[in-house]
């Protein structure tokens, strides 16, 4: 089954900027939600804002790899534009855990101090860009430890220092992490005595597969008139985004079989100097296929050293080599390799070099399909994308299959493909969703924003008058959230409960530090010295490492490689646990950390210690406790592998 997605372009002015790119630089709205196809140059617009206009940009991205790639690409572009290497490098900084490790290795005592200095001095009068992960930005606002001389910097300073604050790939934002984006958006749009909003920053949200974000922003109190919905109009002639792409849907037992079936085509593409990208759905499938591919690819004349493996495990090291000879590591530049073997890690804005041929699995969500497809045949080249489909298909994938089957071999448009992919997602949400959006943030985002704001108000760095501003301009829902917390605090009047109630609320507030759900990992070290960080539950489910390896602290040492430890049958009982705490007792419970955690916790709330505490005497407090947990979706507690002291000591 094939369909041709026709070549499509965007208009470009004399300066090379498209209408959307110009809007991202110039549009006066304080909040801009921008949607455009992959390859449209959304992030490039802000590079031009730096280079041509001396703008200062805080560019927030979801992954360390993307931060590294964007920073490297920006430095190269500035040099191509005539900047010296030194000037270009001094105008770009990375805020990520990788850079934290580098600074620590250099003996820097105050990493936050370095970043605060970069925020004020980077680029001087010629502009600059800080490419950051959200956790680092949030860590500067609600620092676990306020160092001497640093309490004066915060969100108001960021709004004043940067011309643009950008959330790239904003479809990846979780409800629990929305508080950071909401903080900037809210303070940038509040009505003050003589102007609108603090500072000068314009807040932009970018995605090729956008969520319908506007209702959530309005729900926290941002005026509709402050929000601009920006899009890129596709035209037949102009700056090309993609050439004609033959999209083929193929039934195949596995992606490995699909690779072997098309190996000759892969070799031809590489021989022509082009890049080939192969994207798996599951980490376990790619890992299991690597030994076979390390034999089959060289037999076909493909040099393993020219192959890059990208996934969460292999990216846990900076640079290295797989035992089959493949390059690995998050600091490897994808542009430098011929063949890419990857998982969903490449969906987050990773750009490839003339990758006109792609083999892929469809992803678990419609937006994943479009993000992957959009990596191929950039800049007007023609290409081919072959998608492995399985018999049991999700509704959105069945819709794509039916759409292709109805027009075999015919030409269609990227807009039509996007509409097919987004339509089934929209059906699950409000019928008023914006066209071509891929869902909405859950209602929990509003309440997680209130929690984030509550933590900011309590934080030692936010003294008067800053605290007064935060208090005066709280988002909608913050008042109701505060009243619920006060009802819980009434329990502290009960004899012996003061310490426990305060402890529970402290653990609840500590949830604000974790902006997204990240499973704990454990390092597996082989006898050859290879060491990678694997998701713990994944290891338990897929391998026998825990049964046969030697566990020492946060490491497991094994003989040979992980390929010697695969289970014949998955352990479906392997699940992440959560140590749950309660406001009325010191007893804790260990519950599975899954989609039913909140309901299980609320059920246990009244059952735990029923003879020691009578909730009937405190009906309002009981209702408030349940509401706080249900509204935010956050259960106070911690992972079994993290000590209680580490969690409760963050505030």
How does the major sheet shape up? 8 strands, mixed
The fraction of residues assigned to DSSP E strands is 15-25%
Pairing-aware structural class of the strands and helices?
alpha/beta
* Terminus-to-terminus distance: 57 Å
Tell me, what's the shape?
A: globular
| Strand segment count | 27
Widest beta sheet: strand line-up: 14-17-13-18-19-12-1-20
Roughly how much helix do the residues carry, as a percent range?
Answer: 25-40%
Low-confidence stretches: 148-152, 429-433
Query: How many alpha or pi helices?
Result: 25
Average residue pLDDT:
89
Notes on the protein architecture:
With 651 residues, this protein is of the alpha/beta class. It has an eight-stranded mixed β-sheet. A seven-stranded parallel β-sheet has the order 5-6-4-7-8-3-9, sandwiched between helices. It has a four-stranded mixed β-sheet with strand order 22-21-24-23. Residues 148-152 and 429-433 have low confidence and may be disordered.
What is this structure, in a nutshell?
This protein has about 650 residues and is α/β, with parallel strands linked by helices. It is built from 25 helices and 27 strands. Strand 18 (about 355-360), helix 14 and strand 19 (about 385-390) form a beta-alpha-beta unit.
Topology record:
Layout: E1 2-5, E2 8-10, H1 19-26, E3 31-35, H2 42-53, E4 56-60, H3 64-80, H4 85-90, E5 92-95, H5 97-105, H6 111-121, E6 128-132, H7 134-141, H8 155-161, E7 164-167, H9 178-187, E8 202-207, H10 214-219, E9 227-231, E10 234-235, E11 239-242, E12 245-251, H11 255-261, H12 263-271, E13 275-279, H13 283-299, E14 307-310, E15 320-321, E16 327-328, E17 339-342, E18 355-360, H14 366-373, E19 383-389, H15 395-405, E20 411-412, H16 414-426, H17 444-458, H18 466-472, H19 478-489, H20 498-510, E21 521-526, E22 531-535, H21 536-542, H22 545-548, E23 550-552, E24 555-558, E25 577-580, E26 589-592, H23 597-607, H24 619-632, E27 637-638, H25 644-648
Parallel strand pairs: 1-20, 3-8, 3-9, 4-6, 4-7, 5-6, 7-8, 12-19, 13-17, 13-18, 14-17, 18-19, 21-24
Antiparallel strand pairs: 1-12, 2-10, 2-11, 15-16, 21-22, 23-24, 25-26, 25-27
Helix pairs in contact: 1-2, 9-17, 14-16, 15-16, 17-19, 17-24, 19-24
């Amino acid at each position: 089954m094939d369909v041709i997605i026709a070549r499509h372009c965007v208009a470009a002015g004399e300066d090379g900027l498209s209408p959307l790119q110009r809007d991202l630089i110039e549009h006066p709205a304080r909040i801009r939600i921008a949607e455009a196809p992959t390859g449209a140059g959304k992030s490039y617009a802000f590079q031009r804002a730096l280079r041509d206009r001396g703008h200062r940009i805080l560019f927030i991205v979801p992954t360390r790899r993307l931060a590294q790639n964007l920073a490297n690409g920006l430095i190269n572009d500035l040099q191509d534009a005539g900047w010296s290497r030194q000037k270009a490098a001094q105008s770009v900084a990375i805020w990520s855990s990788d850079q934290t490790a580098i600074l620590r290795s250099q003996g820097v005592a105050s990493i936050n101090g370095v970043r605060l200095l970069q925020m004020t001095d980077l680029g001087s009068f010629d502009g600059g860009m800080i490419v950051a992960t959200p956790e680092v930005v949030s860590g500067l606002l609600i620092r676990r430890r306020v160092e001497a001389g640093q309490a004066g910097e915060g969100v108001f300073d960021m709004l004043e220092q940067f011309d643009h604050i950008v959330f790239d790939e904003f479809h990846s934002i979780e409800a629990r992490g929305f508080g950071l984006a909401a903080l900037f958006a809210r303070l940038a749009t509040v009505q003050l005595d003589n102007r609108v909003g603090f500072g000068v920053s314009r807040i932009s949200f970018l995605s090729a597969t956008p969520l319908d974000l506007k209702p959530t922003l309005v729900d926290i109190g941002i005026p509709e008139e402050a929000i601009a919905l920006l899009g890129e109009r596709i035209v037949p002639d102009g700056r090309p985004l993609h050439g004609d792409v033959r999209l083929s849907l193929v039934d195949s037992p596995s992606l490995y079989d699909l690779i072997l079936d098309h190996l000759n085509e892969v070799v031809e593409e590489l021989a022509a100097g082009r890049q080939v990208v192969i994207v798996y759905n599951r980490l376990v499938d790619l890992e299991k296929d690597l030994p076979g591919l390390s034999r089959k690819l060289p037999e076909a004349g493909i040099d393993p050293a020219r192959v890059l493996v990208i996934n969460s495990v292999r990216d846990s090291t900076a640079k290295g080599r797989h035992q089959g000879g493949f390059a690995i590591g998050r600091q490897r530049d994808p542009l430098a390799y011929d063949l890419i073997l990857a998982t969903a890690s490449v969906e987050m804005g990773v750009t490839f070099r003339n990758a006109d041929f792609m083999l892929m699995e469809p992803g678990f969500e419609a937006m994943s399909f479009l993000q992957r497809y959009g990596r191929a045949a950039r800049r007007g080249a023609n290409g081919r994308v072959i998608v492995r489909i399985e018999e049991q298909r999700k509704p959105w994938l069945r819709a794509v299959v039916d759409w292709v089957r109805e027009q075999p071999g015919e030409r269609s448009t990227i807009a039509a493909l996007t509409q097919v992919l987004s339509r089934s997602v929209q059906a699950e949400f409000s019928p008023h969703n914006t066209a071509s959006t891929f869902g909405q943030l859950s209602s929990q985002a509003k309440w997680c924003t209130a929690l984030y704001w509550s933590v900011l108000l309590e934080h030692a760095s936010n003294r008067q008058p800053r605290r007064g501003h935060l208090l005066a301009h709280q988002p909608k829902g913050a008042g109701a959230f505060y009243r619920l917390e006060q009802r819980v605090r009434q329990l502290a009047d009960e004899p012996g409960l003061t310490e426990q109630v305060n402890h529970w609320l402290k653990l609840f507030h500590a949830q604000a530090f974790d902006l997204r759900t990240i499973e704990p990992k454990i390092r597996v070290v082989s006898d050859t010295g290879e060491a990678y960080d694997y998701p713990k539950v994944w290891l338990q489910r897929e391998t026998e490492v825990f049964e046969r390896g030697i566990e020492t602290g946060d490491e497991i040492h094994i003989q040979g490689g992980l390929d010697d430890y695969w289970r014949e049958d998955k352990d479906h009982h392997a699940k992440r646990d959560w140590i749950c705490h309660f406001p009325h007792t010191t007893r804790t419970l260990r519950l599975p950390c899954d989609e039913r955690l909140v309901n299980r916790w609320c059920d246990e709330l009244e059952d735990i210690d029923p003879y020691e505490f009578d909730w009937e005497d405190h009906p309002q407090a009981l209702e408030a406790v349940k509401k706080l947990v249900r509204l935010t979706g956050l259960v106070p507690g911690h992972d079994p592998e993290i000590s209680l002291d580490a969690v409760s000591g963050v505030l």
